[in-house]
Write a structure and sequence with these properties.
Number of strands: 9
Structural class: alpha+beta
Strand content: 5-15%
Number of domains: 3
Helix content: 55-70%
Order of helices and strands: HEEHHEEEEEHHEHHHHHHE
Distance between the termini: 133 Å
Radius of gyration: 38 Å
Number of helices: 11
Largest sheet: 5 strands, antiparallel
Length: 450
Amino acid sequence: MSGTNEKNEKSASKQKREARAKEVARDRRNRFLSRLIPGCILAVIVCLLVVWGGGKIYRSLSETKAIDDMSAGLDDNGYVTGVKASDFVTVPADIENVTIPLSEVEYTEESIDSDIQTELDNNKELSTTTEDLIEDGDEVSIDYVGTIDGEEFDGGSADDYDLTIGSGSFIDDFEEQLIGHGVGENVTVNVTFPDDYSKEDLQGKDAEFAVTVKGIYTQPEFNDEFVKEHLSDKADSAEGYRQYLKETNEKENAKNWITDYLEENTTVTSYPQKYVKTLKGIIKNEDKMNYDYMVQMYTSYGMDNPYADLEAYLAEMIQNDKDEEEAEAESAAAESTEAAESTEAAESTEEADSDEETEEEPKFSWKDYEKYLEKRAQERAKKDLAYQAVAEKAGITASADEYKQYLIDEEEDDEDTAKQAVESYGNGGAAREMLKKKVVSHIQDNATIK
């Protein structure tokens, strides 16, 4: 028995030692974990901060910096600094003797008549001859006071209001009720506001207007006397003015055609990256200035800015550009076959309807904006290099002073306005604008229209 008891005591003692060892091990493990877990958490936090901070550092280093100097990257002669344009772009082979289709630039008799009519409209006179009676199509000057149940209502009165009879500008048959009345007459006009009128408090209500006819506008006749009195700086006869309109507008149309032809048909082999980077900075500054100007305009008119901030404004610009690219791609695909065209049109309509239902505000991404800046900078660089390539071959240069004089002579700016324009561009930027105009004129001088 004693042997058995001794054996049991040793077993119990062993169990106690093992239990104690396990307890010690558990305590040691807990202490280790208590030190390890906070350390791990701290390490994770540090890693996140490093990633976040590194992202900010990377962004600060890679993000385009705005440049407010429009002459950055340009020499005073309008050329890109240190760049030979012909090394980067190839202009159309026929640019020095291009043929311009007459149909693209012709200024028609209908357009000439429309311009003349505009001049006559701008020089109309108000006749107060009491014998004159209002006819359909006449433009009249009136005062009116509107009442509903004998009470004047907001927005129902005006003085010296110009109204064209038959234009449908006023509700119901307001205009027709003035026909046959003469200058100086007081006319009572009765109308009923439509049920869907923009102001709910006036919808469906009968109103009475006390109208005073103050005069009927008359247009002068387009003849030699009219031209000599109003257009003597352009011609001295009616036929001479018609010829002036035709020549000047066809010349301007030709310039526009040449501009489009050169820019659209120039091909790029590579881009001067330093200049593209500079243009990105200039464009970024322009975007900021445009946004600030828009905010100022909304504020001046007492309207709410539709964009929460600059990023929201830029996000919509980026989205609009993507939408245009998609629309162009769909249009190109639709032109392949008539079947494809009808299919694409149907799908486009369905997608448009879906977009209207689920449209969300575009989200801003600075990476997307950087890509957008790159695209726009490359497009602008291509155009600048196209003009420079022609200029290099023809030996054309320009200056800021030439551009200032151009603004005074051709754009009819005064001295101060022209000076401010040149200052805003800077010498290089102003010279570049002049270089483009000189290149277009050079091409036009050697072009054939037929």
